[in-house]
Amino acid sequence: MNLHGSAAAKAAARSVSDRLGVKAPVAAIILGSGLGELADRIEQPTRANYSEIPGFFSTHVEGHKGELIRGFLGGKEILALAGRFHMYEGHEARVSAFPVRVASALGAKVLFVSNAAGGVRRTFKPGDLMLIEDHINLMFRNPLIGPVEAGDTRFPDMSASYSPRLIALLQASAKETGVPLAAGVYAGLLGPTYETPAEVRMLEKLGADATGMSTVPEVIVAAALGMEVAGVSLITNLASGITSDAISHADVVEVGKQAAGRFANLVTAFIAKL
């Protein structure tokens, strides 16, 4: 059995379902660096540490708690994944995306992804929120490589991997809450180094508006499973070469904390519309 395939996901889902009281979640939300404040807004929460879930790994990156939380947000039952285990930590793409399989096995039909990202678009400033319209996979890894998993589409269509319906709901939620929301293309790179100025110039010419080190494998697996996907990037810094300032993860987490309230308001309003 693939230790991070569909059968393993169903086994992991069974191990946490009764324990967390999961019934009919409308969505799974993956929280990126510094965006964990949303978890504090979840009502009637029940939690499982990643270390307690089969196939999951403890997180070691600041700003990632490493908890699966079931509860209510905007009056709807949701699953929140507070943190990731990243490919740059040595995990394969299919392992990094495994929580999406588990969320699907628990009944979530919608996946909401979030991340901290560097701003490639020159008009961005730290603290801006960007609705993800599309992505570019520059990780050069794909979580679907290997035998087809039960329930997967072999060649998933990625032409609208970020659902137009959910994009419209996010834009309506932004207007309703008064949260400024740009839109753009996210480029996923492997990391763990930040990009060089030359690489950022390349990304700009390729059509990327923001860049980060996560999200893409999760969205690919969601597409193979037939989940609807929406996503938001928090622009925590301007990418190298766009600014002469040095980049640090501590700054990324700090900007995340500053924007956490706006992000939580936006996501809560979005979930309420599902």
Overview of this structure, please?
The chain has helices spanning 6-20, 37-40, 93-96, 98-105, 164-177, 197-206, 216-225, 249-273; strands spanning 27-31, 43-49, 67-73, 76-82, 110-119, 129-138, 182-189, 210-212, 228-238. The protein is globular. It is of the alpha/beta class and 274 residues long. The longest helix has 25 residues, at 249-273. Helix 5 (164-177) links the parallel strand 6 (129-138) and strand 7 (182-189). 33% of the residues lie in helices and 25% in strands. It has a single domain, classed as Rossmann fold, CATH 3.40.50.1580.
Blueprint (SSEs and pairs):
Elements: H1 6-20, E1 27-31, H2 37-40, E2 43-49, E3 67-73, E4 76-82, H3 93-96, H4 98-105, E5 110-119, E6 129-138, H5 164-177, E7 182-189, H6 197-206, E8 210-212, H7 216-225, E9 228-238, H8 249-273
Parallel strand pairs: 1-4, 1-5, 5-9, 6-7, 7-8
Antiparallel strand pairs: 2-3, 3-4, 5-8, 6-9
Helix pairs in contact: 1-4, 4-7, 5-8
| Major β-sheet profile | 5 strands, mixed, barrel
> Which regions have little confidence, pLDDT < 50, spanning 5+ residues?
none
| Helix coverage percent | 25-40%
Number of strands: 9
Secondary-structure-derived class: alpha/beta
The residue-averaged pLDDT reads 92
Treating each run of at least 4 consecutive H or I residues as one helix, how many helices? 8
- Taking all Cα atoms into account, the compactness measure Rg is 17 Å
SSE series = HEHEEEHHEEHEHEHEH
Any idea of the CATH topology?
Rossmann fold
Distance between the termini: 35 Å
Strand percentage lies at: 15-25%
- Number of spatially distinct domains: 1
CATH class equals Alpha Beta
CATH arch. level architecture: 3-Layer(aba) Sandwich
> Outline, from the CA principal axes?
globular
